[in-house]
Write a structure and sequence with these properties.
The complex is a heterotrimer of chains A (287), B (273) and C (330).
Chain A (H helix, E strand, L loop, with lengths): L12 H31 L3 H9 L1 H34 L5 H13 L2 H12 L6 H6 L8 H11 L2 H14 L2 H8 L4 H29 L3 H6 L3 E2 L5 H10 L3 H28 L15
Chain B lengths: L14 H30 L2 H10 L1 H33 L6 H7 L2 H4 L2 H12 L13 H26 L2 H9 L4 H30 L2 H6 L10 H10 L3 H29 L6
Helix pairs in contact in B: 1-12, 2-12, 3-7, 3-9, 3-11, 6-7, 7-9, 8-9, 9-12, 11-12
Chain C lengths: L1 H23 L11 E7 L3 H12 L8 E7 L1 H10 L5 E3 L3 H9 L15 E12 L9 H4 L6 E4 L5 H16 L4 H13 L1 E5 L2 H9 L5 E5 H9 L4 E4 L6 E8 L6 H11 L2 H9 L3 E2 L24 H10 L6 H6 L2
Parallel strand pairs in C: 1-2, 1-3, 5-6, 5-7
Antiparallel strand pairs in C: 3-9, 4-7, 4-8, 4-9, 4-10
The chains are: A mainly alpha (287), B mainly alpha (273), C alpha/beta (330).
Chain lengths: 287, 273, 330
């Protein structure tokens, strides 16, 4: 969203420059300079070491595990997100406030606490621990636990993007369709879904970014089994601690490139949005 | 739109509705409610005295104090700089503006541990500019500012866009200086949005782990934030203490979110009449 | 409409591809024929095992055995095993961490009733300093000189830190000090500590990142850092403790034969030599040939300071240990 306006006629020239310098300077020092340095450091010894750092088995497995977790968490949260948004906006039932609060909760919770929570449930000494051990099911220190925490932390985004759009478009079209004889599934598929598609896409992009970047919760619950439960983020930390700075930076660059791709897609989606000033991350956060 | 939010009640003739509600309830219960209940329960498991011990010991209190202080500082800085940056993105025009606008979301998309690493590269011991803030409280501030950058900006931008310029122009034509216009017309309209963004930034900051853990040194009593302390308690085999502090953090987040939400609703009460 | 379908198609294809890739690109371990061993170890021997495992897999006993490995702080790893982390072999930093597992019946009580007493490597606590030793640090007394900054991990989360503390304490006893005086030294020492990381590897990081003048570390960590080109030197003080690292086969592992064979390999000359190449002192005397691991005159073992059971209770009990106020009130 680059909604621009005519520069305010009455803000003095000096004032405008001051603001511009302050704002851009802040961004440069905080964001751009550090990131450029990482890219530089990754490639300053040439492409070879950088490529070696991400093509060795441990790194490859880390990328794979990260992608697998994301590939499970994102569709799950997308389906949930759409259904939940419809339920919250279109249905009437008691406890809507609780649903809203629970959906927003992952945004307010430290990821370490999330890891702890799942450890307390599914760890050996947790609530379900003995039942799981008896049946030989491994949740913590294995992929299922990591998928669960990733679902938790990336849960809100699709819901929060779709809800305001659903509210805004209203039910006229849906009601019209149902009086014309369409079943609820047909109405959903041909009226509702197309109307929210950009909101859903936006939410999916945010969910994916969050899932790819998860670190705190998986730190607690992964067991760091090399090649099995080491995600890319854990791999970055591990390489840094082994003094393999090129390895750490190279893996960080992979993650950063994925993040940049997310940004690009976000911007493409924004531009396709029919309305000019749509909800941004952080907008309409508190209800 | 005159249409109210809850338009169509679920009627018994539509089994799909019940299924949908059931699915939502089940999903939320298993994924969110149950784990949280486990944490809160574990915090109290062992009696009130142990809970109090866990919360009131020196190291935990130091971690909480540092976390709160840093998060408040970060919230304030974001309120100011976020508004400034939103302003220059909406009201100003310069080359590269759309790139800058796109880049704002980067901290949101970038993994936190990578954020910590990038800050360490520039402002740490091997940084090219000779500035070394690693293992200091400044490092914590930097890391938190990085990850909370988009919140206020993205909250203020749409509001700024929609702001009706007529009032400002009218005031200018009546002789008001730009500072007065800013203070009495623009800012009051922005305050609810700024508060929204600040609430989210604060909630994010008090829980931040990945960006802080590499860069802060995690020194107890000096640079150890609450999330790192909780992590330490888990790794030390003291999940009860970890759960206790987690519950405190959660309570603070919720209080802030609801408090600021209430404040927003109060500030915008006339818009909804 | 078309763009939506394209997005859906691409997403679906990505998921399918990821799923296929996940099944095809299994780590070599999963394709093994003689079983897979999960090694859960403390943080520092990662590189060593990186070489030991392939060497083992070339022996008759190790052919076809796959490996999963996990590395982290010694105490953390022990607790992870208690929480359900599957392990066939646990290689930890110090005996008490294995004892916790024995108490929980995760490791058999007879684990150390062999001629090695359950140990697989040795080391000593050293004082790691900046290259060239600018502050001329030679012994424990230099650590408490004004202005000297010390880095050590937190004794309550790191096994390595416990070795450090007992080395410092025991060295004072060796010098003829009383228990009270030795504890007073510890108190002064910790007032010089500027960073308390959770594991030995992390405190090495901190030191290399520029924090502190001297790092209390395992000798093998210091050697590892030097091998990686890090600018540090180290001093072995006259009085220091001999570190012994245990290894054990777990009770709940599935491939006990392979695990036992692995442990046997680790103590053969070939295995011990690989450890020595990575900076560890071998437990097998003959493997020492060709390596320089000086033994200082006042070197002592954990028995000198009372043995781990006594020491754990006295110094490191999380509520009443001697180290609790010392660490907290730095």
């Amino acid at each position: 969203m680059t909604g621009r306006q005519k520069p305010a006629p009455n803000s003095g020239r000096g004032g405008r420059y001051v603001l511009r310098v302050a704002g851009l300077g802040y961004l440069a020092l905080l964001l751009l300079a550090p990131l450029s340095l990482v890219f530089w450091r990754t490639f300053e010894h040439g492409l070879g070491p950088a490529w070696g750092a991400v093509s060795n088995p441990a790194a490859r497995h880390a990328i794979l595990i990260t992608l697998v977790i994301t590939a499970i968490a994102v569709p799950a949260n997308t389906v949930f997100g759409v259904v939940c948004a419809i339920v919250v906006v279109r249905h009437r039932f008691r406890g809507k406030g609780i649903v809203n609060a629970l959906v927003d909760l992952p945004l307010a919770l430290s990821p370490v606490v999330v890891g702890l929570a799942f450890l307390l449930l599914y760890g050996q000494s947790g609530w379900f621990g003995s039942w799981l051990t008896e049946h030989g099911i491994q949740v913590v220190f294995a992929l299922p636990g990591m998928v669960l925490v990733t679902i938790f932390v990336s849960l809100p985004f699709v819901v929060r993007e779709v809800v305001p759009v659903l509210r805004e478009i209203g039910t006229e079209q849906e009601q019209a369709a149902s009086t014309l004889g369409a079943s609820s599934w047909q109405t959903f598929r041909r009226i509702t879904l197309p109307a929210i598609r950009w909101a859903v896409t936006y939410g999916v992009v945010l969910t994916t970014a969050r899932a790819l970047g998860e670190f705190g919760a998986v730190s607690v619950i992964s067991g760091r089994i090399v090649g099995k439960t080491e995600t890319m983020t854990l791999h970055v930390q591990e390489r840094y601690q082994a003094f393999d700075y090129v390895g750490a930076y190279a893996s960080a660059v992979v993650l950063a490139l994925l993040a940049l791709t997310t940004l690009v897609v976000l911007n493409v989606v924004r531009r396709e949005e029919p309305r000019g000033d749509r909800a941004e991350p952080g907008h309409e956060a508190v209800r | 739109m005159v249409e109210a939010a809850a338009a169509r009640p679920a009627s018994p003739a539509r089994p799909g509705a019940a299924l949908a509600q059931g699915f939502v309830t089940a999903y939320l219960s298993v994924i969110v409610l149950l784990p949280l209940a486990a944490v809160v329960w574990r915090a109290g498991d062992g009696g009130r005295r142990r809970l109090w011990e866990a919360i009131s010991n020196d190291q935990a209190l130091a971690a909480l104090k540092l976390t709160l202080a840093a998060s408040v500082a970060v919230a304030v800085i974001n309120a100011v700089m976020g508004t400034v940056i939103a302003w220059i993105l909406v009201r100003d025009r310069f080359r590269g503006q759309s790139v800058v606008n796109a880049v704002i979301d980067l901290p949101f998309a970038l993994p936190t541990v990578v954020a910590g690493l990038t800050l360490l590269a520039l402002y740490g011991p091997n940084g090219p500019v000779g500035v070394n803030v690693a293992y200091t409280r400044t490092a914590i501030l930097l890391a938190l500012l990085f990850v909370t950058l988009p919140f206020v900006i993205r909250a203020v931008q749409p509001v700024l866009l929609e702001l009706d310029r007529e009032m400002e122009e009218a005031a200018a034509s009546l002789g008001a200086g730009s500072l007065t216009i800013l203070r009495r017309i623009v800012l009051p309209n922005l305050v609810p949005a700024i508060l929204s963004g600040v609430a989210l930034a604060f909630a994010r900051a008090i829980g931040e782990f990945g960006a802080v853990v590499l860069i802060s040194g995690n020194l107890p009593f000096r640079t150890e934030v609450a999330s790192v302390y909780i992590f330490g308690r888990i790794e030390s085999g003291d999940p009860q203490a970890a759960a206790a502090i987690s519950t405190v953090l959660l309570a603070i987040s919720l209080a802030v979110l609801f408090g600021i939400g209430g404040l927003r609703r109060w500030a915008t009460r006339y818009e909804r009449a | 409409m078309r763009s939506r379908r394209t997005i859906a198609a691409v997403a679906g294809a990505a998921v399918v591809f990821a799923g296929l890739a996940a099944t095809r690109l299994q780590p070599a371990a999963a394709r093994s024929t003689a079983g897979t061993l999960t090694l859960v170890a403390y943080s520092t021997p990662r590189e060593a095992y990186g070489k030991l495992i392939p060497a083992f897999q070339e022996t008759k006993a190790g052919r076809g055995v796959g490996f999963d490995q996990s590395y982290g702080g010694s105490g953390e790893q022990a607790r992870a095993v208690l929480e359900g982390l599957k392990a066939d072999v646990v290689a930890l930093s110090l005996e008490p961490d294995v004892t916790t597992l024995v108490k929980a019946k995760a490791v058999p009580a007879a684990w150390n009733r062999d001629k090695w007493h359950g140990m697989v490597t040795r080391s000593v606590v050293v004082l790691a300093v900046r290259k060239g030793n600018p502050k001329k640090i030679k012994d424990w007394g230099d650590l408490v000189k004004p202005g000297v900054q010390v880095v050590t991990p937190n004794p309550f989360t790191s096994g390595g830190a416990r070795w450090n503390v007992m080395a410092a304490y025991g060295a004072q006893l060796r010098k003829g000090k009383t228990h009270a005086q030795a504890v007073a030294y510890l108190r002064t020492l910790f007032r010089h500590v500027v960073s308390l990381d959770t594991s030995a590897r992390e405190s090495l990081q901190t030191f290399m990142a520029g924090r502190g003048d001297v790092l209390l570390a395992y000798e093998n960590e210091a050697i590892f850092a030097r091998q990686k080109g890090q600018p540090l030197d180290f001093v072995i003080p006259k009085a220091t403790i001999r570190i012994e690292n245990p290894i054990a086969v777990t009770t709940r592992g599935k491939s006990k034969a392979a695990a036992t064979a692995f442990l046997k390999f680790l103590r053969t000359p070939a295995g011990q030599r690989i450890f020595a190449q990575n900076g560890y002192r071998p437990v097998l005397r003959t493997a020492l040939k060709g390596f320089s691991f000086p033994v200082r005159p006042q070197q002592f073992t954990i028995k000198y300071v009372g043995g781990w059971t006594k020491v754990e209770k006295r110094f490191f009990d999380p509520r009443k240990g001697i180290m609790v106020p010392i660490v907290a009130k730095r």
